[in-house]
Amino acid sequence: MGISFDVAHMLAGLMVLAGLMMLYQDRLYPLLHVLALQAALLALSVGWQAHLQAAPHLYITAAIALLFKAAFIPWALRRMVFRLGIHREIESVVGIGPTMLAGMALVALSLEVMLPITAQADPVARQDIALALSIVLIGLLLMVSRRNAVSQVVGFLAIDNGISLAATGAQGMPLVVEISVAFSILVAFIVIGVFLFRIRERFDTVDVAALDRFRGEQP
Amino acid sequence: MIGLVGVLAAPLVGAAILAFLSAYRLSARINVVVSAAAFASALLLLVERPAPGRFLLVDDLNVVFIVLGTFVGLTTSVFSASYIGHELATGRLTLPYLRFYHAMFQLMAFGMNLALAANNIGLMWVAVELATLTTVMMVGIYRTHQAIEAAWKYFILGSVGIALALFGTILVYLAARPVVGPGIDGMVWTVLMVHAHGFDPALMNVAFVFLLLGYGTKVGLAPMHAWLPDAHAEGPTPISAVLSGLLLNVALYALLRFKMLMAATPGAIAPGPLMIVLGLVSLVFAGFMLYRRRDIKRMFAYSSIEHMGIIVFAFGMAGPLGNFAGLLQMAMHSLTKSAIFFSVGHVAQVKGTQRIAEMGGLTETHPLLGWALVAGVVAIAGLPPFGVFTSEFLVVSSSFARQPVLAVLLVLGLLVSFGALLLRLSAIAFGEPLGSVEPVRASYVPIFAHLALVLIAGVWLPGPLVLWFQHVAALLG
């Protein structure tokens, strides 16, 4: 317990807060800024874990989070948004009020589910796992509540931030997973980029609703 | 050791070579040779297998999946050679894309073999992700509106699925850590299985829910199936064949492994009922959806959902007979469905369309191809004398003995999809001849090799194979 626990708890809690902030951003640029903020908090949180667990390899993970997730990806997405000329409004499938309420319900749900069953784990890991689950669920909520391809990607990256938090919270988790996560983000990002440009090329919009015209079978 | 190295290294080396070759005939041939090398190595694993390490493992369970997978990979590469030739001739694919296609094909094979041979839940997850990403790229390869939509949907749903599976994987590690201790050992299958009795059951329960939803998305279980029909319909047909014949099995294998782990943890919930419910929902849902299909590849994609439902149901019922039936059904479905996709690929090429309404009288216009398709559909619908009949009969009879109500639902789902398949088949194969009648240069060897195996399994299952499957069924618990 003590200060080390408090700092870890605060950083993870701030990440959840950033997740909730994403839910009410109705423009793409601020959404990307919040994503960058969440990733920066992740980097701090991972760095703190590295210090606590005396696990130097976690500093690498923290550096990856800071440079790649908090700087490069938001920057690249921002460029993409600008080039596509879609930095105006993004529509939400459901209103912001219900989405926020659902987000809070998800946080409550994950605390309710995870805290009792992780009683054996140490307190830091316990909090991190519970809060990480809420970040994952909020990311899912973001993905289903938005129709814009870029905000769906942001939702996916939020899920990834939550998973990274969980992975570092579990003490002694082998490095192989962390590197693979970072690596797969890179790959996933390339894939997404390719797809976005193809979609842009074909439809002149990245609104997934434009894709819906082609859903299912044409009579 | 050679077998294991071959299974993994052959596709990897093949992918590296094929990425730089743009001569069509040569690269198609190399593709076949590399797939054959992987299959030969897999056969070696039957005879002699290395001791399990921290990352790789070959045991009685996964060797079945590896041999089946590399065999379907080999026949698909043979089919792919003639299929891709036609696509090049009609200009749907260009040479740079062909290079990309072949490299991705082998990279996907590598991902699947690695996922099957992994002794580490983290490594397995990475391999499943690799296989997913490569198939996403291939589904979008035609770059039409529909192909991009299909690839996007597959990518988003697949990513969410594997993200959930990773969360479940982390939870399993968290459950193992107090018992096994921190470090790599907490993710090794063989170590986990030994220590499973000491795991926290509540944590394992939550972990399994995430793993079931995550890998279940990749298996194509309803209601997480939305990516599957699109991905099958819009990509190149060889990819449809490997998706149904291989990738779904890989995800299923991951589920089975975690199910074994759950069974070894005292106090954890029984995974069976969850799997039975998801399996039945997929089966009945897909059965009804089959009636509304107008696209031939999409129809057989729904049939894959239906069969994965049956398989997951059978493994959910568990017990020696349930597991045996599930294994047999899985093998039969892989062989039959990829044979169907091989013939459908040629049919769609020769008719120039995938729409069922625009093809008809296939047995008159292209007798051999038409009758091959008829045989495949008869087999997949579960009619004797094919192997699918045997396995479905086993699933139904074993569940009647234990859960009559569930068995009634199962039979209902089977009959619904049976009707839909035969209805569509009669229009495609018999009916009035429609569409092009020009002769087809099809590769019949893979189609008939698969159908012959399914027929043999239906008439007479070799004794050693039965013993082997019984042994594996006992392992599955």
Write the layout of secondary structure elements.
The complex is a heterodimer of chains A (219) and B (477).
Chain A: H1 3-23, H2 28-53, H3 57-84, H4 96-117, H5 123-145, H6 149-169, H7 175-203, H8 208-212
Helix pairs in contact in A: 1-2, 1-5, 2-3, 2-6, 3-7, 4-5, 5-6, 6-7
Chain B: H1 2-18, H2 24-47, H3 60-90, H4 95-117, H5 121-139, H6 145-180, H7 189-195, H8 201-219, H9 227-234, H10 237-264, H11 271-289, H12 296-317, H13 319-351, H14 362-365, H15 367-380, H16 387-402, H17 404-429, H18 444-459, H19 463-476
Helix pairs in contact in B: 1-2, 1-4, 2-3, 2-4, 3-4, 3-10, 3-13, 3-18, 4-5, 4-10, 5-6, 5-10, 6-8, 6-9, 8-10, 9-10, 9-12, 10-12, 10-13, 11-12, 11-17, 12-13, 12-17, 13-15, 13-16, 13-18, 13-19, 15-17, 15-18, 16-17, 16-18
Summarize the structure.
The complex is a heterodimer of chains A (219) and B (477). With 219 residues, chain A is mostly helical.
How would you characterize this protein structure?
The complex is a heterodimer of chains A (219) and B (477). By secondary structure, chain A is an all-alpha fold. Chain A has one domain. Chain A has eight helices and no strands. Chain A is globular, with a radius of gyration of 18 Å. Chain B has 477 residues and is mainly alpha-helical. Chain B has a domain at 270-477. Helices cover 79% and strands 0% of the residues of chain B. In chain B, α1 (2-18) runs antiparallel to α4, α3 (60-90) runs antiparallel to α10 (237-264) and α11 (271-289) runs parallel beside α17 (404-429). The longest helix of chain B has 36 residues, at 145-180. Chain B starts with a helix and ends with a helix. In chain B, 62% of the residues are buried. Chains A and B meet through α4, α5, α6 and α7 of A and α5, α6 and α8 of B.
